[in-house]
Specification:
This protein is an all-alpha fold. Helix 1 crosses helix 3. It has one domain (2-80). The protein has helices at 2-39, 45-51, 54-75. The mean pLDDT is 88.
Length: 81
């Protein structure tokens, strides 16, 4: 019975971290893309991607991946040691 309680607590903690990570990622990604857009005022990234500009798509993908790493470290720092 004690082991079952331990497992349920661990599952609850895992779900909590998943929710915290998802919310943090959503907010962080929105802020990061807005800052990136402000830093490139003469370039409409989404229009360039619609035109098929792969280089812009790769740069935006790198921004998203970098943001994911930052959020992962901030949400669960002990897992990144």
């Amino acid at each position: 019975m004690e082991y079952l309680r331990f497992l349920l607590v661990q599952y609850a903690v895992t779900v909590g971290w998943a929710i915290a990570g998802a919310v943090s990622m959503g907010i962080g990604l929105g802020v990061a893309l807005k800052i990136f857009t402000l830093l490139t005022p003469k370039l409409d990234e989404m229009e360039e991607i619609r035109k098929g500009n792969i280089a812009v798509a790769i740069v935006l993908a790198a921004v998203v991946l970098a943001m994911a790493v930052v959020v992962a470290v901030m949400v669960m720092p002990e897992a990144m040691k």
